[in-house]
Write a structure and sequence with these properties.
By secondary structure, the protein is mostly beta strands. The protein contains 2 helices and 41 strands. It has a 26-stranded antiparallel barrel. Strands 1, 2, 3, 4, 5, 6, 7, 8, 9, 10, 11 and 12 form a 12-stranded antiparallel β-sheet that branches.
């Protein structure tokens, strides 16, 4: 029969049904009255004399956000209660479902008792019980003689991978917490842990105080150790994470993380304090902190703090492989026409070859930029001003190693483009830079202690974009570009602090200067020539090509051979990018001369599909003594994962230098992630060493039960499995 009220049902029964199911305590004056219930069944029998109602066959009740499905319902008006025969499905919301064989509930479906019941939370955690009771307001659900697990239980394998048996479980639906009494954790049916009381978050709770899954590790230098993390949710806007770590090698460490959100910003502080006896210092540690705040007049205040007790600490405890740290305090405002910013930066080098006393460890700068459209000449103009200074702690003035510098810079730029009827696009660009330096503690290189210079630059550019439509909707775009740059053949020398390294790639092929900062600018007249080609295929793969070089009227001797920019003509720059159906991405960039001798070659390959994930790169760099690269570099890196079998994933990472014939890092990992558990096992090897740090092998293991807490990557969407 159709699941609707029989059309021949007497009108009196229809009216009585709406009235009876909406009966209950009289509402207090001023309170909103709940809407009447809706009942659907194959057959309904109602007695107006006794006030009894019976509904049978595919029964569904909708009342005040609660949905009930059952085989039969009997309503007793005198007791104002429902007797329900199963199979029963009671759904409070999208995340909570109760299945039962028999139930006695109040007329509002909130309080009562369910027998032979099973509670399912967020399609992940299942709690089977002999009976389940609900409080009158629906907040508390109590389950007795329970078995809880997020593992699938199958007929051929009735014992789940893990289960928690308890005398009673209380689910606080408001706080979204589960309280277990006399809990016993079993793995493959074997009891492994007993706790008189235990509290766990339900699968919908994102933040909850408590212990997280422990992490086990074994290290050549630190020994075998364990990390036990406690997360403390202070309130809605603050939390604290503490992780004690002890090892057989004598290491005692406390790691911490503090986070707080404000109305106008947020902060996060990470750090650790360690006693390990590996150095002469009694304590070691680090602090990394960052924060962002919106302040008055649309300004944004940001800060970063990075410091460590010694150069080897971060590598020893696998916190970071960075060899230079920076702490920064900055304030900035950015809109369509203005950029105002000021900052102070403190550097800390961890490299053995560098002495922080002779590095510009304290930098300050303030700048303002304005963009506008000139009314008389058109186009777009930009003016900016900057004040910059840096300080070295050393006092050795005779060698210049302790040089301190202050700089004031003014710049102006203007450009305008024209589109001609032939399709030719031309652009004119002009810029000028005025820089004044005050120099201290470098009498050998700058005895006058001041440098003032003016750098004029004029650029003309022409490009001819040509498009063609091919078969199947394929689009081709070919664009030859020629750019002529006119500037001085020489400039006054100034302290070079911000342009030590030079990159030559497709991003700056048509730039007026390949140097990164203001201290050094590219000199001499030259042509930047190149061609871009793009192919777009609706079938799902795109191709991009760039080829170009720089041709000068004379060699200015500004660039080292390893940069590819030395000589009257630069090396050829070639770049290729390929994207196939958003799965395969290939990027390649190379610098080579007319004899096809390569100065640099970089290749990056990425492939992703439901089973494989591969990220691999190869880099070749010619030796550049001036840049501190004494040997050629030929390095290959690989980071890949593969789905080995159902729920099993393997990972591998590798970095290898073919010039020195040794690896810097290597690692393998194995992950098991099913509907009810996640296990991560990994082995990594660090081959790098310093005078105080030797190569080390680390073995790590984590074991996590899924189904507790929203951030736990639970079983929602995970394939259900009956076996390990």
């Amino acid at each position: 029969m159709p699941r609707r009220m029989p059309p021949l049902m007497p009108p009196l029964a229809v009216t009585a049904l709406a009235l009876i199911l909406s009966l209950g305590p009289a509402p207090v004056t001023g309170q909103e009255t709940a809407a009447p219930a809706l009942l659907i069944a194959d057959a309904i029998d109602f007695s107006s004399e006794t006030g009894m109602l019976a509904a049978k066959g595919n029964v569904e009740v909708f009342y005040d956000g609660v949905q009930l499905k059952a085989d039969e319902i009997r309503y007793d008006r005198t007791a104002d209660s429902l007797s329900i025969m199963g199979p029963i499905t009671l759904r409070d919301d999208e995340t909570t479902v109760i299945f039962a064989d028999f139930a006695e509930l109040s007329s509002d479906l909130q309080s009562g008792l369910l027998r032979g019941a099973r509670l399912v939370l967020d399609e992940q955690l299942q709690i089977a019980a002999t009976e389940i009771s609900r409080s009158s307001d629906g907040r508390f659900v109590q389950a007795y003689q329970t078995v809880a697990s997020s593992c699938t239980i199958c007929a051929e394998n009735p014992v789940p991978l893990w289960q928690i048996r308890s005398k009673r479980v209380i689910h606080d639906t408001q706080e979204r917490q589960l309280y277990f009494e006399q809990a016993q954790l079993r793995v493959l049916g074997v009891p492994v842990l007993f706790l008189p009381q235990m509290r766990l978050p339900d699968p919908t709770l994102e933040r909850s105080s408590g212990f997280l899954a422990p992490e086990f590790s074994s290290d050549d230098q630190l020994g075998t150790g364990v990390k036990i993390t406690y997360f403390y949710a202070i309130d809605q806007s603050r939390d604290l994470t503490l992780t004690p770590y002890v090892s057989t090698g004598g290491t005692k460490t406390v790691e911490g993380r503090y986070r707080q959100a404000f109305v106008n910003g947020e902060i996060e502080v990470n750090g650790a304090l360690t006693f390990d006896g590996l150095t002469t210092e009694p304590y070691r540690g680090y602090v990394f902190a960052e924060g962002t705040f919106d302040v008055a007049h649309d300004y944004t205040l940001t800060f970063d703090i990075e410091t460590t007790s010694d150069p080897d600490y971060l590598l020893t405890y696998d916190i970071s492989d960075r060899d230079r740290l920076s702490s920064r305090l900055a304030i900035a405002r950015v809109d369509r026409k203005h950029i105002n910013q000021a900052e102070i930066i403190a550097f800390q080098s961890l490299r053995e070859s560098e002495d922080n006393r002779f590095l510009p460890t304290i930098l300050t700068s303030a700048s303002t930029t304005r963009r506008f459209a000139p009314g008389l000449i058109g186009g777009l103009a930009t003016v900016d001003a900057e004040v910059h200074g840096h300080y070295r702690r050393g006092d050795d003035a005779a060698t210049g190693l302790s040089r301190d510098v202050a700089r004031v810079g003014l710049s102006a730029q203007w450009e305008r483009s024209w589109l001609w009827s032939t399709g030719l696009v031309t652009r004119m660009h002009a810029e000028g830079h005025l820089d004044h330096y005050e120099i201290l503690q470098d009498p050998l290189s700058f005895p006058d202690e001041t440098v003032t210079r003016l750098t004029p630059i004029l650029t003309f550019e022409a490009r001819v974009p040509m498009a063609q439509a091919g078969k199947g909707g394929v689009q081709h775009l070919l664009e030859p570009i020629v750019q002529a740059v006119f500037t001085s053949d020489s400039l006054k020398d100034a302290p070079n602090e911000d342009s030590q390294t030079v990159d030559f790639d497709e991003g700056n092929l048509f730039s007026t200067s390949r140097f990164a900062g203001r201290d050094v600018r590219e000199t001499g007249n030259r042509l930047n020539i190149g061609v871009n080609y793009t192919r777009v295929d609706p079938a799902g793969w795109d191709l991009g090509l760039t080829l170009g070089r720089v041709v000068r009227d004379a060699d200015q001797n500004q660039f080292n051979p390893g940069t590819g920019l030395d000589g009257a003509s630069s090396d050829w720059l070639a770049a290729v990018s390929l994207d196939v159906q958003d799965r395969l991405q290939l990027a390649h960039r190379a610098l080579f001369d007319d004899q096809l001798s390569f100065a640099r070659s970089e290749t990056l390959l990425s492939y992703t599909d439901p089973r494989y994930s591969i990220l691999s790169g190869y880099t070749w760099l010619e030796a550049d003594v001036a840049a501190g690269r004494l040997l050629d570099t030929s390095e290959w890196s690989l980071d890949a994962s593969v789905a080995l079998a159902r729920d099993w994933t393997g990972q591998v990472d590798w970095r290898y230098d073919f010039e020195t014939n040794d690896a810097s890092t290597a690692g393998v990992g194995l992950t098991y992630h099913s509907d009810c558990v996640r296990v991560d096992f990994n082995v990594s090897r660090r081959f790098t060493a310093t005078t105080t740090l030797r190569p080390a092998t680390t073995v790590g293991l984590t074991f996590e039960l899924t189904g507790f807490g929203a951030g736990n990557e639970g079983s929602r969407g995970q394939r259900r499995s009956c076996t390990f």
